[in-house]
Amino acid sequence: MERIEIPARRGKAAFVTAGQVVTVINTHGEQVVDTWAFSRADLSEFMSNEHTRAHSLHLVPRPGDVLRTNRRRPILTLIEDTSGGIHDTLIAACDRYRYAFLGHEGHHDNCTDNLFAGMAELGLTPPEVPSPLNLFMNIPWDADGTLGFAAPPRPVPGGHVRLRAEMDLVIAFSACPQDILPINGKAGRPVEAHFTVTSA
To answer: In what order do the strands lie in the sheet with 21-26?
Structure first.
């Protein structure tokens, strides 16, 4: 079983066949992994948090939840989560504009560029940047709907999320390079994560 690295601050993508299982591993326990999935037959159909929430009625996906596309078709099923179950479906992928807003001057690695770079390795270009499923990202909210940013409260090194493909798809990841806000652990230092693709 090949364990594929998602390098720190970088992106990676892979082809997945219906029925295969993708295991995303939070290798060090504190790294956010932005995650996207696109239909291999038509990249304009992709995993959509907005459409998924309308069916699951959960802000955070749980084992057994079916993740749906922007055409409301099943694309992935979350079948196992040993990471502590802390994920985000609300925050957009970071991009150059986000870092400029946060006061960073010049280039900063970002998840949007990482999506394009990871898919370019497969000879593909995403038609847009969907809202990612931010695995292992802790965005707490309170009763009035106010959001915050926090590193995982109980890091689980080696904790993983297991996803079953419900169609032939392209999966893409970014080991989020955010080092200004406290969403990654290790004092804000992004680190690598890993994934595997196996038969069910």
So the answer is: 4-6, 193-198, 21-26, 159-165, 74-81, 66-68
